[in-house]
Amino acid sequence: MVWQGVARPSADYTFFVHLLNPDGTCCAWQVDAMPRANSYPTTLWLPDEVVVETYTITLPDVQGAYPLEVGVYVAENGVRLAVVGQDSQGDFVYLRPIVIE
Fold first, then answer.
1. Of 35, 47, 73, 92, which cross-links 80 as Cys (Cβ 3.0–4.6 Å)?
2. Are 3 and 48 in contact (CB under 8 A)?
3. How far apart are CA 65 and CA 48, in angstroms?
């Protein structure tokens, strides 16, 4: 994942990456974590800084198309940040599904 802020974040955010089940329910695999890249919290990110995170997804053994959703939230209260963009769904973004044949 590549994250880039447009301004300095006002809170230390947690990121989520969810590999959904083929029926859209959560989760065949997931990670919810503060950014590990460079080992510093989001409140220290600079405007336009690019942060790259690598996740190793454990895939299920069952065939199907597994959608990916990603987003950001405040861990203390679980409130997700709104996402604006073409593939956004309000408070997360769908990525291309992983298809297991």
1. 73
2. no
3. 33
Could you give the number of structural domains in the chain? Answer: 1
Show the domain range for 58: 2-100
Contacts of 44 (CB under 8 A, 6+ apart): none
DSSP secondary structure string, 33-78?
A: E---GGG--GGGPPTT-EEE--------SS-EEEEEEEEEE-TTT-
Spatial CB neighbours of 90, under 8 Å, sequence gap ≥ 6: 82, 83
Contact 68, 97 (CB under 8 A): yes
Per-residue pLDDT 10s for the chain (101 aa) are 888 888 888 888 898 999 999 999 999 999 998 876 556 788 888 899 888 888 899 999 999 999 999 998 998 898 998 887 766 668 888 888 999 99
